[in-house]
Every structure is written in structure tokens, then in C-alpha cells.
Design brief:
The complex is a heterodimer of chains A (449) and B (424). Chain A is mostly helical and 449 residues long. Helix content of chain A is 72%, strand content 2%. Chain A has 2 domains: 224 residues, Orthogonal Bundle (ABC transporter involved in vitamin B12 uptake, BtuC); 118 residues, Orthogonal Bundle (Arc Repressor Mutant, subunit A), CATH 1.10.10. Chain A has a 3-stranded antiparallel beta sheet with strand order 1-3-2. In chain A, helix 7 runs antiparallel to helix 10. Classes of the chains: A mainly alpha (449), B mainly alpha (424). The interface between A and B is large, with 67 and 63 residues.
């Protein structure tokens, strides 16, 4: 084994594994918090486990895993219980109840740390926030063949094993109770009426959140725990609509964040020529934020950028169709072309001047409209398209008057909106039945289809 | 062992003789607490309490960037005049991100708050670790913004804090009418011409101001507590907005100044947690003792309803031909004992050993209870379209909570209705 690889396995692999396992376990359970709109419960729990840890330390005097775990989990459940108590009996708004409980508990923890426990042990406020990923070191054997021995594996930092177990527990929880969790997330009332113990499941979910928080928190710090409970699940929610695929996608995102965040934190500065490393858990959080931003912008169905493009296209289509329609109507009046200024007036409704101008360019590019000396007119192809639009418009007017009971002079605006629904899929459903005459309510001919 | 610094006594501080610096810090903390309490009331009523948490966390990257810029420009990088505007910019960017996420994507506000809170803070942590690696002196102070530190607070810093706090108190007073309208009914406010978005924006600006002002004293992680706990504590005591804001300001001011005082007096007592815990004490007192909205009152009310329900049931069982054994007409346990106590105190039952019977007054009370029950049953069948076979269940549940005035109305209605019915 080359020294480089040995160094990587010794210094970088344990924190990378621990960080990634922490990300994965938080992300999986976070899906259900995000869906139930109680994401901030993770925030509250990860703040308020601090006094649990400190009290456990003060009572037992050791930093052994088990008492710390029990203390922190107890504090987590206490938070959930207190929030519920305040919400139910004191009728305090849930957000404020959460804020009161976790900030008081967190303050208590910081104070206890500051005044007693922190003096004797490496438990300090800084590692509460940022974790101790950087401090994880393993001294692996120098030969690959010796890796699989009990002795070697026992020296792997404890957090790696703890977090691997956390991933396993969360995985089993999510897979085994998937159906129940899904129904409780989407419709607690239905779940109760179907005989699912909604409050029991909720309690179980909170217990798992508390356990995962506690297990991860020591290694990666509370900030990364909050980020991982929310960001991967929220990102996945922007990318998919099915809960099962959301859970899988969130797991993939968490893994990618964990590995790439660590690598960027540990090696990124070196690649740029600096010699110090950046905070690994901070960097993982940043990567999670970047992934979330990207998926909020470019999610295929729900991404904001994608939706924006879709809307712009829609506005442009409507403006182009309005242009064709007004040219067609001008022809009916005997004017074969219109001045651009007049067209802008006639179609200024959708998207303002810019949309009208862009739409005119696009109509010219499509060969539906020609422009000559500041005047526009329909081409042959444009003629056909315009006839189809006007047909749609006048059919709708007939329909609204004959079937909808509208007065003939009230249907134009409605028809202006409805005429654009001409794609084949919708045409079959929306196109009104053929009226008896081919004349619209304003006595103009309906172009044949 | 180092000789502890000479600290002024509580009395000296309170009588403003504890040294000029301590006094200024104390007054600054007082103003900060009042401002946070007053602003927090409106944040709570708009259900934006936890946004303040994101605001607090989101200041960190702003502080780091301001530090780096000031350092590059050769300005004294640790002065608050440099760092606080940076903090405010970071917080405002965080707020805008939350707003964009809730408006433009399908994510809900809780996820947006949590994501902004953690990612902004994560960016700040990365920048802090980068700054630590650089060869810049004087960077130790940056971390003190996370947990807060009044001990190192200079007089200028305290004046700045108090000034910003005072400014936000004045702003609340100026905007009070608009804030009140928006807090209670934003649709109505919009309909009479209040620009709701503007008022909300102003409120958030105030939250940012208070959070930034409190960074040095309370720290960015706990500043949210100063904006949430005093309003929640005051909410136990009153339903009137003006009083609520006043009380919340008083609680906030008291918590901040007591906390700062304790912190100044005691070694190893950071100000932020001390202030939050004092506020927590005010909250717990209200929760336990408040007459109408407290948890204690809630539990008592719950108990009272149960006792009344069981008392009515006991009366109607006692009307059946006796003799009656206590165990057969009353529930067991604490509730049963309370029921027996209440009925005996009113002179409605008399007991001999383990046997009980109605007195004459009790007989009358039982008849009344029975009458109420019948009224409800008829009312439900006639007016509320409940099937006759179902009325027993709901009548049993409802008769105990019905107001006597409604009973009278019902009686009148039913009497009129039955006479009209017999006439036709």
C-alpha cells in the first residue's frame, strides 16, 4: 500500500465515512419531517439535546457513548413533549412553542457547559455546532491483508460504527413502516380512521429523529444535522412527486453531499494552493445548500427556472396568436396589412410591449407573418394558423352564447382567453360542439376547421 | 490562581454607581430587551416567530464577509460599525431567500427557514475556518458573536446596541396601528388600504435590526429567544394587544437587564444564556400561574368540566329508586372524591357511611339537570338534524358545557314552538 493511500485511509476515510453516514441517516428520516411540515422539529431537537449530553456527562463523569446517548435522547423526547404540552394546554402557536422550548434548553446546556462540565472534558460549544469530524483518526495496518481482523476493525473510530448503525436503524424503520408513514404524512385523519395509530407513529418518528440527531450530532455538529434533515429531502421533493422515489433521491443526494463536501473541505484549498483545510461539516452543509438551490431552480417539473421558461413561452405563444388573430380580423375588414404600432395596441394585453415584439419576431421566423416597411401581414402559412385561432375564438363565442346563456356582447373577453387552448389533447375536450350555423353571435363567419 | 477582577456589587450597579461602563451596558441591554419583546409580539402574531431564528443564524456569513472586506481595506475590522451592517446584509439575504422559496417553489415555510438557517450558518462556518487559516490578527472576536459576550463589550458598542434598540421601539410605536391591523386580519387591513406587504417588510426589518443589535450581547444562536419568549410569556396574561406589547417589552427588558447583571456579577456566566434563562423563568411563571391561559388554568378547567359532568351523572343516578351505594353512583378515584365533595358542599346529597341519597335541594338540582338534557335532545333533533337514535351520545357530551343563557333561549323557543304546534 502506498503511503498516500495509507494516509488517506488513516486521516480522511473515517471522517468521510462518518459524515456520509450521518448525512444519509438524517436525510432519510428528514423526508417525513419535510412532508409533515415539521422540519423545524429537527432544528429544535438538535439544539436541545445539548443539556441532555451535559447532564449525562455530569451524572456519570464519563464521555462513554451509552449514557451520553440516553441523556441526549431523553432531552430530545422532552423537547417534543414540552412543545406538545405548550401547544395543547397553553394554546401557544407551534412555532413559538418550539422556539421557547429549544432556546431555553439550549441556553441551559451552554450555561452548564460553561460553568461545569466543559472544564474537564473536550465537550465545548464549538464542537456542538461544528462536530469533531476533523479529529477522527484511524491507525490502519500497512498491509491490505490485515484489514479484516477484529483488532483492526475495533480501532476504527467509534462514531463510524455508531453512524453506520444509525443508517441501518433508519433504513429498517423507513422500509418496514413505509406504508404507515406515508399515510400518516399525507392524511393523518384518514390514517386514524383506517385504524393506523397516528399518534404512536408520530411518536416513533420523533424517537427516530431524536436518535439520529444524537448519533450524528456528536460527529458532525448540530448545524449539519439540521441541514441534512431538511435540504436533501427538500431537494428531492423538487425533483420528484412520488414519496418512494423522493426517499431514494434524498439518500443519493445526502451521500453525494457527504462525500463531495468532505473532499472539498479537506482537499479543495490545497487544489487552490492554500495549505489549510476548511471546516468539513460546514462544507458539506454548503454543498447541500448548492444542491438544493440547483434543484429548486432546475427541477424538471417544479423548478422555478423551468417554470419561468414555461411561463415565458406561454406568454409568447399567446402574444403570437393574438397577433395572427388581429391580422386575420384586419383582412376581414379589407386591410391586408397593419402598421406595427396598431398591432401593438391590439395585442398589448399579454406581457406588455416586449412580449409583443418578441412574439412578432418569432412569428416572422416561423414564416407566419411578413414585415415590410413598418407594416405586417399574414403569409400563406400564417393565414391557415390564424384561421384556426379565429375558428377557435368564434366557436367558443357561439358556445358561450348558445349553451352558456351569455349575452353576445359579453363573450369576447372570455373567448380571447379560451381560444388559445388549441392543442390536440385539449381540443377534443374543449372544442365546443359544432353550432347549427357557421356564423358566430356577432354575425361573422366561423372559418372551417 | 488568578485574582478575580474587582466586580461591582448588585446594589452599586442598580444605583448606577457601578462604574460608567457597566451602567451603559445595563441600560443598553434593557433597551434591547424591551425592543425585542415589543417587536417579537408582532412576529408571533404573524406566526413568523421562527423566522427570527433564521435571521440570527444568517448573520454569520455577513459578519465574516464584512470582516474580510474591512481587513482588506485596512480598516479596524473588529469594530461593530463594520461588522453589524455586514450581519444585517446577511440576514436580509436570508430573509429574501426564505420568501423566494415559499413563493416560487412548492416547499413550505418551515423547510425554507430550516434550510436557510443551516446553509447560511454553514457558509459562515466555512468562512470562519478559512479566516482562521489566514494570517490575520484580531480575529478572535468573530466567534464571540455566536454565543454572545457582554464582558468584552465597550461603552461604544453598548451605546450602539441601545441606540438601535431605541430606534426600533420608536418604529413600532409609529407603525403600531398598521401592525395591529395586519396582525389580526391582513385581508381586512388590505381592504381598507393598508399595504400588507410593506408592513410585513417593515416588521421583518425590525426583526433584523433587533437581532443585529443583540448579536454581541446575546449571540446569534440565542437572539431568537429574546424575540420569542417574552411575547409568549406575556400572552399568558392578556388578550389585549396594547397590554401584550407593553408586558412583553417589560418582560424582555427585565430578562435582558437581569441576565446582563448576573453575567456581569458572576464569573464564567455568559450573558446570552443567562438572559434567555431569566426570560425562561418569566415564561414558566406565566405558564403555571396565569389565570386564564396558563397550563395550570387549563388543567384546572379540564378537571372542572369533568367534575361537573360526573356530578350531573351522579345526580341523575341518585334519582332512581335507592338505596344507593357510593361506589355504584360515583366514579372512583380523585374525580369521584371531588364530585362527592362538591355535591356535599352544595347540600345536594347527604351520606350515611357508604350510602348516599339526594336532599330536597339535590332533588331539584337533579330535575334541572335532567331538564337541560332533555332540552338539548329536543333541540338537536329539531334544529340540528341529528337522528333521534344519536342524540343521547352528543347530548351527554354537550349538556354540561352549555351556557345557562342558551338554555333559557332554548326553553323559550321550545315552549313557543310546542304551543304553536298544539294550536295547529
Amino acid at each position: 500500500m502506498s503511503p498516500g493511500i495509507h494516509e488517506f485511509i488513516s486521516i480522511d476515510l473515517p471522517p468521510m465515512l462518518a459524515g456520509t453516514f450521518a448525512c444519509l441517516s438524517c436525510a432519510l428520516v428528514g423526508n417525513f419531517l419535510v412532508l409533515r411540515r415539521i422540519s423545524l422539529m429537527g432544528d429544535a431537537i438538535s439544539h436541545s439535546v445539548l443539556p441532555g449530553l451535559v447532564v449525562a456527562f455530569m451524572l456519570t463523569g464519563t464521555r462513554a457513548a451509552f449514557p451520553m446517548f440516553v441523556g441526549a435522547a431523553a432531552a430530545g423526547l422532552l423537547t417534543v413533549g414540552l412543545v406538545e404540552l405548550l401547544r395543547r394546554y397553553a394554546r401557544i402557536e407551534p412555532g413559538a412553542a418550539m422556539g421557547v422550548v429549544f432556546s431555553v434548553l439550549f441556553a441551559l446546556g451552554v450555561l452548564l457547559l460553561e460553568r461545569g462540565a466543559g472544564r474537564h472534558v473536550d465537550l465545548d460549544a464549538d464542537c456542538v455546532l461544528n462536530g469533531v469530524l476533523e479529529g477522527m483518526i484511524w491507525f490502519p495496518p500497512s498491509e491490505w491483508s490485515e484489514f479484516a481482523t477484529w483488532q483492526t476493525l475495533r480501532e476504527v473510530p467509534r462514531q463510524v460504527w455508531t453512524l453506520m448503525a444509525a443508517v441501518a436503524v433508519v433504513g429498517v424503520f423507513v422500509v418496514a413502516l413505509f406504508k404507515e408513514l406515508r399515510i400518516v404524512c399525507f392524511d393523518p385523519g384518514l390514517a386514524t380512521s383506517q385504524g393506523y395509530p397516528a399518534s404512536l407513529l408520530n411518536g416513533g418518528l420523533m424517537l427516530v429523529v431524536a436518535c439520529v440527531t444524537v448519533a450524528s450530532f456528536e460527529a458532525v455538529g448540530s448545524i449539519l444535522v439540521i441541514a441534512m434533515l431538511i435540504c436533501p429531502a427538500a431537494s428531492a421533493r423538487m425533483l420528484t412527486d412520488r414519496l418512494s422515489s423522493q426517499v431514494v433521491v434524498s439518500g443519493v443526494i445526502a451521500t453525494v453531499c457527504g462525500v463531495s463536501g468532505y473532499v472539498l473541505g479537506a482537499f479543495g484549498p490545497r487544489w487552490l494552493g492554500f495549505d489549510n483545510a476548511l471546516s468539513a461539516s460546514g462544507m458539506i452543509t454548503v454543498v447541500a445548500g448548492v444542491v438544493m438551490t440547483l434543484s429548486m431552480l432546475f427541477g424538471p417539473q417544479h423548478g422555478a427556472a423551468v417554470r419561468f421558461v414555461r411561463r415565458v413561452r406561454f406568454v409568447l405563444t399567446i402574444a403570437r396568436e393574438d397577433l395572427l388573430g388581429s391580422l386575420y380580423r384586419a383582412q376581414e375588414r379589407g386591410e391586408m396589412s397593419l402598421a406595427i404600432v396598431e398591432v401593438a395596441d391590439a395585442t398589448g394585453g399579454a406581457g406588455g410591449g416586449l412580449a409583443v415584439r418578441v412574439a412578432r419576431r418569432r412569428a416572422i421566423l416561423r414564416g407566419q407573418v411578413q414585415e415590410r416597411a413598418g407594416r405586417v401581414s399574414l403569409t400563406e402559412a400564417g393565414q391557415k394558423e390564424a384561421a384556426s385561432i379565429i375558428r377557435s375564438h368564434r366557436l367558443w363565442e357561439s358556445y358561450l352564447v348558445e349553451r352558456g346563456g351569455f349575452a353576445p356582447d359579453h363573450v369576447h373577453d372570455a373567448a380571447m382567453r379560451l381560444e388559445h387552448a388549441r392543442d390536440t389533447e385539449r381540443r377534443a375536450r374543449l372544442e365546443p360542439p359544432q353550432p347549427a350555423s357557421a356564423i358566430d353571435p356577432h354575425d361573422r363567419p366561423i372559418p372551417p376547421g | 490562581m488568578i485574582e478575580p477582577m474587582q466586580t461591582p456589587g448588585v446594589w452599586e450597579i442598580l444605583t448606577l454607581r457601578g462604574g460608567h461602563n457597566t451602567t451603559v451596558v445595563l441600560v443598553g441591554a434593557l433597551l434591547l430587551g424591551v425592543a425585542a419583546g415589543v417587536v417579537g409580539v408582532f412576529a408571533m402574531l404573524r406566526r413568523r416567530s421562527l423566522v427570527a431564528d433564521a435571521v440570527g443564524h444568517a448573520t454569520l456569513p455577513g459578519i465574516c464577509v464584512a470582516f474580510l472586506i474591512a481587513n482588506a481595506m485596512g480598516v479596524e475590522a473588529r469594530s461593530l460599525a463594520v461588522l453589524l451592517p455586514g450581519a444585517a446584509v446577511g440576514a436580509v439575504l436570508g430573509l429574501l431567500a426564505i420568501q423566494w422559496m415559499t413563493r416560487a417553489t412548492r416547499l413550505t415555510e418551515d423547510a425554507a427557514i430550516g434550510a436557510v438557517l443551516s446553509v447560511w450558518f454553514g457558509v459562515g462556518v466555512v468562512m470562519l475556518s478559512a479566516i482562521q487559516g489566514m494570517d490575520i490578527g484580531n480575529q478572535g472576536g468573530l466567534k464571540s458573536f455566536i454565543f454572545g459576550q457582554t464582558a468584552t463589550m465597550s461603552e461604544r458598542d453598548a451605546r450602539l446596541m441601545g441606540g438601535v434598540a431605541l430606534l426600533s421601539i420608536v418604529a413600532v410605536l409609529v407603525m403600531f396601528k398598521q401592525l395591529r391591523l395586519v396582525a389580526f386580519n391582513d385581508d381586512f387591513a388590505a381592504s381598507i388600504g393598508v399595504r400588507v406587504a410593506l408592513v410585513d417588510g417593515g416588521l421583518m426589518a425590525l426583526v433584523v435590526m433587533v437581532s443585529v443589535a443583540g448579536l454581541q450581547a446575546v449571540g446569534m444562536l440565542l437572539i431568537v429567544a429574546l424575540l420569542i419568549i417574552p411575547p409568549a410569556a406575556a400572552r399568558f396574561w392578556t388578550d389585549r394587544l396594547g397590554l401584550l406589547a407593553l408586558l412583553s417589552g417589560v418582560i424582555g427588558g427585565a430578562a435582558a437587564s437581569i441576565g446582563a447583571l448576573v453575567s456581569a456579577r458572576m464569573d464564567r456566566m455568559p450573558a446570552g444564556p443567562a438572559i434567555v434563562l431569566v426570560a425562561g423563568v418569566f415564561f414558566v411563571v406565566g405558564m403555571v400561574a396565569a389565570p386564564r391561559r396558563g397550563v395550570g388554568a387549563g388543567v384546572l378547567r379540564h378537571l372542572g368540566v369533568r367534575v361537573r359532568v360526573h356530578a350531573d351523572h351522579t345526580l341523575s343516578r341518585l334519582r332512581l329508586p335507592g338505596p344507593h351505594h357510593v361506589a355504584s353512583v360515583m366514579p372512583s378515584g380523585v374525580i369521584g372524591r371531588l364530585v362527592r365533595l362538591v355535591l356535599a358542599r352544595r347540600g345536594w346529597i347527604r351520606s350515611e357511611g357508604s350510602m348516599v341519597a339526594l336532599t330536597d335541594a339535590g332533588e331539584a338540582a337533579a330535575v334541572l339537570a335532567e331538564r337541560r338534557r332533555r332540552l338539548w335532545q329536543r333541540y338537536l333533533v329539531r334544529y340540528a338534524d341529528v337522528a333521534p337514535s344519536h342524540v343521547d351520545i352528543s347530548a351527554d357530551a354537550i349538556e354540561h358545557v352549555i351556557d345557562p343563557v342558551i338554555v333559557a333561549t332554548l326553553e323559550a323557543e321550545l315552549a313557543a314552538e310546542s304551543s304553536a304546534g298544539s294550536g295547529a
